[in-house]
Design brief:
Blueprint (H helix, E strand, L loop, with lengths): L3 E6 L6 H7 L3 E3 L6 E2 L2 E2 L6 H17 L4 E4 L5 H14 L2 E6 L14 H10 L5
Parallel strand pairs: 1-5, 1-6, 2-5
Antiparallel strand pairs: 3-4
Helix pairs in contact: 2-3
């Protein structure tokens, strides 16, 4: 049986979470770190902690050989590197999926349009 890690990439509001929940795998995303008592409370100063939290949870699931999906913006290749490293360490196949927002939907986290435009401008195709 192949062990798979899915990396779901895309801009805010593109449907990353929706797609991730359809995959047969344990789902994580950095945004979950900011949910406190059911309310999303983003604090940019805690973003490095949120990424470490996400990576640690993914590694824990991988240590049991279970399929896992990570849905984050992943606008640049270096942001995915920790997950490629974990895949190599635990013998996982990496499947990278890009979700494109063709319905002009808005981010559920109220990400400002200017921030989304910056992300769009730095989006790299996975190597």
């Amino acid at each position: 049986m192949n062990k798979i890690i899915y990396l779901v990439r895309g801009l805010p509001g593109s449907g990353k979470t929706t797609l991730a929940k359809l995959l047969a795998a344990r789902h994580f995303e950095t945004d979950n770190f900011f949910v406190k008592e059911g309310k999303y409370e983003f604090d940019p100063s805690k973003l490095p902690d949120a990424h470490r939290w996400c990576q640690a949870n993914v590694e824990n699931v991988m240590s049991f050989g279970k399929n896992v999906v990570v849905s984050n913006t992943f606008t640049q290749n270096w942001e995915m590197q920790p997950y490629f490293d974990l895949a190599k360490k635990y013998g996982y196949k990496v499947i990278t999926l890009i979700v494109e927002n063709r319905n002009n939907t808005k981010s559920v986290h109220s990400v400002p349009e200017a921030s989304i435009e910056k992300m769009k401008n730095r989006f790299e195709i996975c190597l």
